[in-house]
Amino acid sequence: MALHSFVKEAGEKVPGLSVPGRAHEDLLNHIESVGLSRPDVMPDVQGDKIVLSGKLGSQEAKEKIILASGNIYGVATVDDQITVTGSAAPAARFVTVKAGDTLPAIAESAYGDSSKYRKVFEANRPLLAHPDKIYPGQVLRLTD
């Protein structure tokens, strides 16, 4: 359970996110649209903050739901209140993409080896469709 920061001015726009009564459903639809299955979580949109509560079967699923929710234009924080019911796995690290970053550069910084960019890519699938399609302000997961 933690509070995760995101760049409010970065990410995909989800039109209904600021509309009371629609935000919950539009956020769940967005999560599905990025290639994740519809989670058994309850999102509560509170201005530029999203509170996620519920239960998920894995740490990886939890982290990807957090990233799918936070990498949205207008979202500054995600309050993680999700419980993982499956086996305990170590939490991944999150990194914010800076202007000029590439997955090889991120891999070099994180792992000391730019050729491990596929590890970064795979840790963020299906949120990333292609290794060259990242943007400044996007938050990515790094696994050990």
Describe this structure in words.
Helix content is 27%, strand content 24%. The protein has 144 residues and is of the alpha+beta class. The mean pLDDT is 94.
How would you summarize what this structure contains?
It contains 4 helices and 6 strands. It is an alpha+beta fold.
**How helical, in percent, are the residues?**
25-40%
| Radius of gyration, CA atoms, in whole angstroms | 15 Å
Q: Structural class, from helix and strand content?
A: alpha+beta
Largest sheet: 4 strands, mixed
Reading side by side through the largest sheet, how are the strands ordered? 1-4-3-2
Low-confidence stretches: none
Shape: globular
Number of helices: 4
How far from one another are the termini?
20 Å
**Number of extended strands:** 6
Q: Kindly state the mean pLDDT as a whole number?
A: 94
Beta-strand percent range: 15-25%
Sketch the topology as an H/E string, one letter per element.
EHEEHEEHHE
Task: Give the tags.
144 residues; alpha+beta; four-stranded mixed β-sheet; two-stranded antiparallel ribbon; 4 helices
List the helices and strands and how they pair.
Elements (H helix, E strand, L loop, with lengths): L1 E4 L17 H11 L7 E6 L2 E8 L2 H12 L6 E8 L8 E4 L6 H9 L5 H7 L15 E4 L2
Parallel strand pairs: 3-4
Antiparallel strand pairs: 1-4, 2-3, 5-6
Helix pairs in contact: 3-4
